[in-house]
Amino acid sequence: MLSFLPGPLLLLINLTLFAIDAIVLGSLVVLLGIVRFILPFKPVIKVIEKIDYLMFFVWSINTKYIILLTNKVQYHISGDKPLGPSKPCIVISNHKSWIDILMLHSVFEAKIPLTKFFMKKNLIYVPFIGLACYALGMPFLRRYPKEKILKNPELRMKDIKTTKKVCRNFVENPACLVSYVEGTRYTHKKAQQMNSPYKNLMPPKYTGLGIALSEIGNEIECMYNLTFYYPDLKKSGFLELLLGKVKHVYARIEVIKRDELPHGNYLEDQDFKNEFTQYMQDLWNAKDKILDEFKEEHRRLKETEAA
Questions:
Q1: What is the largest CA-CA distance in the chain?
Q2: How many CB atoms within 10 Å of residue 291?
Q3: Those residues with Cβ within 8 angstroms of residue 108's Cβ, 6 or more apart along the chain or in another chain
Q4: 229: closest CA among 279, 288, 179?
Q5: Contacts for 15 with CB less than 8 Å, ≥ 6 apart
Q6: FRET label pair with 192: which of 1, 35, 124, 279, CA 20 to 30 Å apart?
Q7: What is the pLDDT of residues 160-178, one digit of tens each?
Q8: 251: closest CA among 128, 91, 29?
Q9: Structure confidence by residue, pLDDT tens digits, 117-137
Q10: Which of 42, 38, 33 is nearest to 169 (CA)?
């Protein structure tokens, strides 16, 4: 709607709107975080979770329409429809840009439960953000350097225990665990450095997702396999979004129901671990082909527009 305006003006508009949205909703989240900290009882937490979801819904809708207001975006969404927000689930996605989180909520439109991400433990001390994330029940993990883990293997078990505890909480208070399985944003340079066998992806990291499925795979509603492609982005994407330069977003949603997922004990069953590794490699091969299809679809679209 306003995408015809010059980039610097769009930047100002976007920063203002996103700031207002964050300050209003974020302040409520922080207040809830204080209540949750003072009264960490299950009945209180359940009420807070419901209020959190309402704010999550409002934030998702606001985000989508702010983007549509300042970017002339065409969403090319294909695949399956989300099953609804009432049951716990997992979302796995490729990680291309800093805008992935915003686009994830724009695509799903709050038709999934409140999304939660594993975060580094030290982020809890960041003013405002740390308390807001705590209020939303985000799981915090302490990442130890490999040198420390080699000297003290028990440190590795601390994050594993935290992961298991967090997964149980996702079932008791239905939420959506989001996992960017590549572990970092994809760039061609990074992929070359890691000798990635894929054309458009980093190699998947299995452990966190494997533990999560071992813990709650029989209790989640499904796992959503989400694939994103942004043909207009040249760099990280967030600044380009603020400047109104995002024109096309390609997304495919695959619903993998509970009985279609591999089940077993990732940490103790080597046969299951091998099965799960092969499952993820097959999934990533298919995702790589989807990204090639998106590129070809966009190429044909540009040819049609130019004709």
A1: 64
A2: 21
A3: 60, 82, 253
A4: 288
A5: 242
A6: 279
A7: 777 777 777 777 777 888 8
A8: 91
A9: 777 677 677 666 666 677 676
A10: 42
